[in-house]
């Protein structure tokens, strides 16, 4: 069975979506739509997409897609999701899902009321290093887990031109670091370590050219007792040939071993009392972040074809947003927030 996909959006990140769709055998990438006609046309030409549009409803009427892939800034998502629901298409929507949680909840509830397939394009959990970390955690080779920490250091947030050449709307987001970037790590931490019980946060803005926060620390307490730290600063980089590949470095400490992820996607294991050794595994250095967009979309295709649930459904994503809201509330009040 072949599923017909139409994409809405031709901005920076859409290139990774369209490249991935063209490599999934069960998919026919039929059309792209963008308000900017020249951008829609050039994107269609670049990715071999046969049709381009500037009007979403006209595209839906002509193409009759099985899947609508929404790859636009978050302020546009609610109206586009309702249009997609009315069309009967399955819906994949980029994150942040909405400007705020009440809006996201309305979108999810509307999709559920209409029995629409609705997934959030949360690709970080599909990055190959996190898949391999999950395998190692499942093998219990690290022993009892104590702590996890991640130092986010992409180094792309300095100066008045920060983010403008890639995703300029970042500069206007009043909630930025956690809402746009940290949400990935909330989801990834839940994927690797389970439910989050309590959070404490201290956030700040370092670059006066943007509206929202761009640095801070967040402490997590997981339901199983593990403690987590997310230490983020978008202005500082880290030692990597591509600082946006992993966006930083992770350390997981257990009773038997310590596991380290570096900025090149390499994993290192150090048994207690011994020296660190590289843990080798295979991954493809193509697309975005180890081809995680391809892996994410391939997963969603299989869910659709085989009527399977997905852990990145709109309903599941609301739990991430609850944690995000608790982080901002903790920063506002200076208190530990229980979920």
From TrEMBL:
It holds the Pfam family GFO_IDH_MocA_C3. One of its GO terms (molecular function) is nucleotide binding. Residues 4-120 form the Gfo/Idh/MocA-like oxidoreductase N-terminal domain. Residues 130-242 form the GFO/IDH/MocA-like oxidoreductase domain. This is Gfo/Idh/MocA-like oxidoreductase N-terminal domain-containing protein. It comes from marine metagenome. The lineage of its organism: unclassified sequences, metagenomes, ecological metagenomes.
């Amino acid at each position: 069975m072949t599923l017909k996909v139409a994409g809405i959006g031709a901005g920076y990140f859409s290139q990774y979506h369209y490249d991935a769709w063209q490599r999934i055998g069960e998919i026919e990438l039929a059309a792209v739509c963008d308000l900017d006609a020249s951008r829609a046309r050039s994107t269609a030409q670049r990715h071999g997409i046969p049709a381009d549009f500037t009007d979403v409803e006209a595209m839906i009427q002509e193409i009759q897609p099985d899947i609508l892939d929404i790859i636009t800034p978050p302020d546009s998502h609610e109206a586009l999701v309702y249009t997609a629901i009315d069309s009967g298409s399955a819906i994949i929507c980029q994150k942040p899902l909405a400007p705020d949680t009440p809006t996201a909840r309305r979108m999810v509830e509307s999709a559920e009321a209409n029995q629409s397939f609705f997934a959030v394009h949360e690709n970080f959990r599909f990055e190959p290093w996190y898949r391999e970390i999950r395998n190692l955690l499942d093998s219990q080779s690290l022993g009892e887990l104590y702590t996890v920490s991640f130092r986010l250091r992409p180094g792309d947030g300095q100066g008045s031109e920060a983010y403008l050449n890639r995703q300029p709307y970042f500069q206007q987001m009043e909630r930025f670091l956690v809402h746009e970037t940290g949400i990935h790590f909330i989801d990834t931490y839940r994927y690797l370590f389970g439910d989050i019980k309590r959070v404490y946060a201290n956030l700040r803005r370092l670059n006066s050219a943007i509206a929202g926060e761009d640095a801070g620390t967040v402490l997590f307490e997981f339901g199983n007792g593990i403690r987590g730290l997310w230490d983020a600063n978008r202005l500082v980089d880290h030692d990597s040939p591509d600082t946006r590949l992993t966006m930083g470095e992770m350390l997981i400490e257990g009773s038997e071993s310590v596991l380290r992820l570096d900025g090149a996607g390499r994993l290192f294991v150090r048994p207690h009392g011994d020296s660190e050794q590289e843990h080798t595994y295979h991954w493809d250095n193509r697309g975005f972040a180890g081809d995680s967009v391809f892996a994410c979309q391939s997963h969603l295709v299989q869910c659709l074809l085989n009527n399977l649930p997905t852990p990145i459904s709109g309903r599941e994503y609301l739990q991430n947003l609850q944690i995000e809201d608790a982080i901002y509330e903790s920063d506002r009040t200076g208190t530990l927030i229980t979920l």
